[in-house]
Each structure stands twice: as structure tokens, then as C-alpha cells.
Write the C-alpha cells for this entry.
Amino acid sequence: MRPHQVIVTHANMDFDALGAALAARRLYPQAAVVLQGGLNRNVREFANLHADELELVEASRIALDAVTRVIVVDTSQENRLGDVAEVIARAGVEVVLFDHHASPQVPAWVSPGCHVLSDDGALCTTMVAILAERGIEPTPTEATALALGIHEDTGSLTFPTTTVRDIEALAFCARHGAAQEMVGTFLHTPLTADQRTLLTTLLDAAETVEVGGTPVLLCCVRWPAYVDGVSTLATKIVELSDCRALVMAVEMEGRVFVVGRSRVPAFDVRMALEPVGGGGHAQAAAAIVRGEELAQVRARLLDALPGAVAALPRARDIMSTPAWFVDSGTRIDDAMGECRRRHTSGVQVQADGVVVGAVAREDLDRAIGHGLSHAPVRAVMSSQVDTIAPDATLAEVQRGLRETSTGRLAVVADDAGRPASIEAVMGVITRSDLLAALRDRHEPEPAAADADVGDRLLAMPGLNRVWSAVQAAAADFDGVHLVGGAVRDLLLGEPSFDIDLAVEGDGVAFAAELAERLGGRMHPHEKFHTAVVLAGGLRVDVASARTEHYEYPAALPIVEHSSIRRDLFRRDFTINAMAVALRADEFGRLLDPYGGRVDLDAGVIRVLHNLSFIEDPTRIFRAVRYENRHGFRMDARTRELARGCVDMGLVGELSGARTRDELLALLDEASVAGSLARLDELGLAAAVHPGLDCGPAAAELVEQVDRLRERHAPELPRWRARMAVVCRNLLGDDVVELLERLRVRHRDALAVQDAAVVGPRLVGLLGQVATPADVADLLAPHPTEAALLAAALGAGEAEEYLERGAAVRLELDGSVLQRELGVAESPLVGELLAELLRRKRNGELDGAAAELAAARELLAEARA
Ligand code: CTP
């Protein structure tokens, strides 16, 4: 086999690697998935069972000299790639990397910009997200492999690094036919007899080493014969011992196999194994050490352990400050009012500058219920003052909170066992503080409301009735927002205006209500939960706020407008990821969680996340279009990501309606000189077709074509003649194939291909003819774009034709000939008219009388 592209992963391929490799093949359909260095036992069994469909190829069967692109998945370590590592080192070979939890340092062997590094629990999750965004449907077997990968690398969604994305990706796999019983079978393959004996020995040898507060289980064993699947044993030991972290080393056949697992964020097992040449990620890592004895490896591991423990947040890092108090004599309803105002679940109580207790909001509420509003807080407070030291770990905080009755701990530096003065209280920790720290949430805060946005909306001509209908219809919905380009244009003060609404809730129901209030019609698209409302020349597009990558039943929003924020996160650029609230109580509030407004002011096109282009390469065209239209620039990272996506071959042979839409939209802008240069520079032109010309010569020609079109044929769409210019160096068949691939409408395709192919040839032909009528004979059968192109290429005759010839019409027609000269209906009429037109084009006829006289003469000659 001599494939040009190969997909390869680390030795001892696990399910995450297999699933990711299969998904990568959907992105690179020409590539072969190569096996090297063996497979984990359960992966091997799965692969054997599905051999026909999976078409995995042994490295030994591949002629590696033909390979020009290597796609590496699930490892950033070259030495785990076997023979393929040599291919990577070869000049001219492009190397693409997909990995997760890798070191932020991209390996030097990866081609510049050609990497996707994610933080997902499983690489399969990252790949699923890409497939989902691209609308690629995995087969049931692929979905099963992807599901197994996610299960394996997230401990069936239980590892602390598991993200919502992992969970949703698993749901996506299930929807695409992942076989649940297959997942169950392959996830838990029974141990062999050898494995069981080794497992018992490992458990006997287990010792606990305390590293910076984290207990790490260390199991080191010498074994007389090779036993397969040491990593499976590590998983079993974690299950059986319930340890938080494990480092295991087994010496067999002159090598030491090291496997590490961690279930706590504080311990990064990859760092623990790094000194012995290990790789992997924070939760799971492995190494094979040659030429060293078990004792040496163990000693090195012990040395490395302290470096693998991360500094975890302490009480002082998560407390709320400053602490506030109410006096013990404060009325209960006043204390309750204060809790409400400050959004707290309770309050500390002081008397004479000393902390004397705390009270939970629940208790205040209950007391009010019993008619005790006027009583002093001291009557219901708990006089136990629960304190904790600022250096306490989260585990200690958790324990402390469990034991309090008020759900709050005062953080006190000097906990001498006596009542603390209020000055000594550094802050307070409640259950929400702890939960926030455990979740480690970094939700960006929305920008402050923008007073003038509402005014701008109201100032838009003719739309007031829409806003009031939207407000009325929105009353029962969680949120209704104006989104996308409309918000961008509103802030830019641009007149163009599409009304795109995102509804938190059932968008179709909202659209029905809106249509009724506007006295219009509504066309739903139930599958996508979208609808169009048409009312008196007005069009409003309504969508249900898209929450995640995958359709799933809407969950109750936890955070205010959480779904609109997530909807915005799925958009292309920060400048398009803003929303304006339209419900009456928040009309005009700008939601700008990703800094779109700042970027808009600075003229920056910035993607929201690193996978944006990979998930949707048409966005590169959009970036170029916005740069050109508004004089904006992509920021350096966005530019790099765009180039990376192109270099990775992920724009590839573009096809499909969305690409056509974006390419045509780009070519239809008022001016395109900047866009063409950018398409060229980013390698995007070549990705569409290697023969496309978007270089300086094309830009100059487009300028000419634009000038001529503007003057002689302003009714023609701008993009067609420009597309012809860009395609003019392609072979005729290639143009046809390209336009078909882009699914350009038949009529448009004919104009473009004719102009691109015939236009340049006409230049030579026009030089050989003498009269304006001959020129017209050459040009008239072709679309006007052909003449535009010929004229732009310097054929003065073509311009002359556009100026005058194309418009020449006879004043008389066939019926006049029949009536005035008595010519019967016959081919003769056509011949006469053609000859008259020729003469008129050559300037020999002027006016209806001259035409009729000439016709009479011609008729006489014909009858003679
Ligand atoms: N969008 C996206 N990715 C795409 C296409 C669109 O994220 N590939 C989102 C953007 O938020 C965009 C919105 O969908 O603003 C609407 O898309 P569209 O109507 O195509 O573009 P507009 O932003 O309205 O801009 P323009 O009409 O100028 O193209």
C-alpha cells in the first residue's frame, strides 16, 4: 500500500486513540489509519471484530516513502510513533497533531500551526465536537469506538477533569448508534490468569507515600515473565484500593513498565513520570524504561513525586471578603433584609466588637414565619462561632462546613480558641464559595448594560412596531435577544439590517406568537427549532438559542441567560458574538461576554476559541470578508489559526452550499482587492483549487472588470465576472468541475465558465476580425461576462461592443417585413433580419426607413 496520507498514534493504542484516529479519517478521507507498536488487548479484540469496516493497516504493509502528510493523534511524543517517526523527520512531509492534555509546548516536529490541542477529558470528545460542527455523521462502529474512548479516558465520566463537553459527546455517540452492550463488553475485559496473579502481587507490594498532603499509592514489582495490559491492572488497582493517585512500576524482561493514575487535580501524574521518559496527561501517564533496574526507577520516581503536586487553593483564596456583621440586637427582619440585599445565605453576629455567633437565612425566615420579626437576632442565632485557618485546605474547609449548623465559617488567622474580635475575621466561607472553588468556574462576566443600544434600536426607521410586538410576545420567555451581524451593524451604525432573534425556550412558539401580533405569517423549521416570520415586507428570523454542540433537551437555565451565552460562544468571531436583550424589562441591554465591543472599536476579528476554523472552515472566508469590508484585521492568533486550518488540509477540497455562499458573498462585496490578496496569502485560494489565481494580476484584472461592469452592465451580479477572472487559468473541465463541486446555480455556472474559458481566447480572435458586425458575431453568443473579461484583458473591440454594439437593435422586425414587403413566414425572414443587423452594426443603416429600403433591396436580390 502506498498511501500519501497516514493517521498514526502511540504504541499500545487505546480506545481514545482508536476513536480519535477513526474520526480523523473522516476529516482526511484519503488517509490510512496505521497500526504500529501493538494495541491494548481490548482494542485489539474490538478491532478484530470490526476489521472489515475499520480497515486499519499494519505499518509493515505500508510503503512509507510515498507519505506526504502524517496525522498524529493522542500523543505528542515522537518516540511513541515507531517507524513513522522517521517519516516525520523527512523534509517536505506535513505533520498534523491532534492531542489533549498535552504540554502547551507544541512539539518541534509538528508543521507550523498544524495542531489541535484541547483540554477535553478525552481526545474523542474533541473529535466528536469537530464532526458535529461539520455535520459529519459517524457510523455506528465509529460512534462505538468514540464512546469507548470517552469512557476510557474519563473513567466513564468520573475523573475530575471530565467536562460537560465529554458528557455531551457521549450522548452524541449514543445518538449515532454507539452500541451500549459493546461499550460494556470492551470496557471491562476480564483479567487473564497471569494478570490476576500480578495484580495480587502488586496489591501486596502497595505502599502509601504522602506527597504534599496527597497520598500516592506506590506499587513496585519485579516479574519473571511479560504480562500484557499493565495499564489495565493500574485501573483495577485504583478501583480496588480507591486510591487518589497511583504510581506503579513493573520490571519484566529487562524493561520497567511504569503506569500512573491520578484522580485528584492536585497530583499531575504526567509530571511524576516525566523524569523516567513518561508521557500522557495529568490523570494517566505511562513510560517504558530500558537499561535500568526497578530500584533505580523507583528511586527516581520518588524524587519526582513532590514536583507533581500542584499548589491547591486554600481557605484564604476562596473566602468572601470583607466579612460583614450584624449586631446581636438587630431585629430579625432587618437582618433578613440585609441578607437579601447582599445575596447571602446568612450572616455573622457580633457584640461589642467580638464575634458571638452566626445565623442562617433559613432560620431568620422561619422566625419571621413565627411572628418574630421584631425579636433580636441573638434569639435565633447559633452561638457556636465556627472558624477556620486561612491556610486550611479545601478538604478541611469541606469538613468544617459539614459540621457547622449555619453553613458559614469565619476565616481567622489566630485561632486561639477564644472568641475572635471582628477585626481578626479575614473573610467568610460559605457552601457557595466552596462549590465555586471546586467547580473552578471562570464564567466571563457580561459587559455592563449599554444605555444607548436601546435608543439605537428605537431609532431604526420602521421597526418600532416590531420591537413592541417582540416585547409583547417575549413576556413568557426566558429571554429574547437580537443576535449576530445585526448587533454588530447596529453598533457600527451601519444601515444593513437582518433581524435575527435567539429565543431562550421554544423559538417556534415565540415565532407563532410574534407572527400573530404582527399580523403576518410564520414558517417553522421544526427540526432545527427555527422559524421565519414574514409580515408586510418584513422578515424576522427566529432561532432557539443553541446551547451546545449537540441537540439535547433544554435544561433549566442555572445562570441567568446561560443558554444565550452558550449560543454566543458557538459563533464565529467576538464581533458577531454579542446580543441585545429585547424583552421589555431589559430592552437594549447589551450582552457581550467575549469582548466583542472592544474588538469592534479596535477593528479586530478574533475567534472565540482555537477550534473555530477547524469546526467550520467557511469562517476563514468570513474573516477575510469582514477584514475587507470594514478595514478590520484578524489578530495574530486568529490569523495563525486560519493559516493552520488551511495548512492542515482541513479546508481541503471545499464543497457544499455553505462554502459557496461564503465564497460568493466575499466576491460580491463592493470591493475585493484586499480579499483576493488575503485568500492568496492564507493559501485559501489554492485550497479551493490549486489553479485559482488570486494574485496581483488577478486583482488588477478584477479592477478593470469591475470598472467595465459598472459602466456597461451594472445589472449583473458583481461576483460572476470576478469569479471568472479568478478561474481564468483553469482548464475548461476543471472550471466546470469546480462550479459543480461548489453547487453554483446552473445559470450562474454557465456564465462564469463561459467567461473564464472563452473570455481570454476571445482576445486573440477579436484581433483577427475587421468589422463591428464580426465582433458582435464573436461576442453575442456568450454571456456579457465573457466580453467584460476580454475587454479587461485589453481587447478594445470588446469594450467598443459593450459600449455600442451590444445594444444595437433593428427598428423593424419580422412582422414589418411580412406586412410591408409581403414576405411569407419562412427562414428567409430570419436571414433578412440577420443581414440587416449586420449592416446596422457596421454603421451602414440609420433609421427605420433605411432599414426597410435595404430589406426591399435584399429581397429583390433574393428573388432575382
Ligand atoms: N455564524 C457563525 N459561523 C458561520 C456563519 C455564521 O458563527 N460560519 C454566526 C455569526 O454570529 C453571524 C450569524 O451567525 O453573525 C449570522 O450569520 P450571517 O447572516 O451569515 O452573517 P451576518 O453576521 O449577519 O453578516 P453578513 O450579513 O454581513 O454576512
